[in-house]
Structure formats: structure tokens, C-alpha cells
Design a protein that fits this description.
alpha+beta, 3 helices, 139 residues, elongated, 5-stranded mixed β-sheet, single chain
Length: 139
């Protein structure tokens, strides 16, 4: 008899948002998602949990065989959630190429990182910001 065992899958992708960077690793498994060693089911706040789950909801049942482990560092709470969401979406596209058009039509930031960054502070004005000048008196 022919042995048709499931082949092992391992996908690594990154997601970025502002200062947050998410590194995700997917392996074939039971569909468990872990963010910084915490299961997604106990992730708080609820709004961000749903935000992170969006790519999984769009993909549907075809990706229930992947275990995804995400390590997120830097940035704030929302930036980390956006970076994790992007990493999950990139993994799902790598797993199923047909999802790319779905994701791009739903929200382009699922696959494309936002290139905007804060402007560096200029010399001698480090406290005031990158563009603020000293106030001048007209008279």
C-alpha cells in the first residue's frame, strides 16, 4: 500500500507596523495561534484579538491545519497587533496563493507594510521636534 502521510510545512514571515516587528513561524498542526507564548484566545483587548483574526476569517476553513507562533517586539499595542496580523496574512498567502487577491481587495495593509516613519529630530531642536522653530517676535 502507498503511504500518503501529510508533508511537513514550515513557513517563516515577518510583519511590520511603525516600530513593531512580528516574526511568525507556521508549521502543520491543529490550527493553534500563539502570540508571545500566549494563545490568541486569551489575548486582550478583545478588539485587537478580532483585528488579528481578520486574515483567518477571510481565509476560511482552508487554513485550519497550520500552527502559527508569533514573536512581536517593539512599538505599542496597536502596532504590535497590526504587525502580527500582517505576518499571519503573509503566511496564509504563502500557504494558499489564491488568497492574495482576496486580501488585497479587502485591505492592502494585510500584505504591504506601511512605509511611513516618524521624522528624525534635527540638531539643536531635539526637544521641540523635527520642524518646530523658535518663536520670533515681530516687534
Amino acid at each position: 500500500m502507498l503511504n500518503l502521510a501529510k508533508k511537513k510545512i514550515m513557513i517563516q514571515k515577518t510583519g511590520k507596523r511603525k516600530r513593531a516587528i512580528a516574526r511568525a513561524v507556521a508549521q502543520s498542526g491543529s490550527g493553534e495561534i500563539v502570540i508571545n507564548n500566549k494563545p490568541l484566545e486569551i489575548f486582550e483587548p478583545e478588539m485587537l484579538k478580532l483585528f488579528i483574526k481578520e486574515p483567518l476569517m477571510i481565509a476560511g476553513e482552508g487554513v485550519k491545519d497550520l500552527d502559527i507562533s508569533i514573536d512581536v517586539k517593539g512599538g505599542g499595542v496597536f502596532g504590535q497587533a497590526s504587525a502580527a496580523r500582517q505576518a499571519i496574512a503573509k503566511i496564509l498567502v504563502e500557504h494558499d496563493k489564491g488568497l492574495k487577491e482576496k486580501f488585497l481587495s479587502y485591505d492592502r495593509t494585510l500584505l504591504v507594510a506601511d512605509a511611513r516613519r516618524t521624522e528624525v529630530h534635527k540638531p539643536s531642536a531635539s526637544k521641540r521636534g523635527p520642524r518646530r522653530h523658535k518663536q520670533r517676535s515681530k516687534r
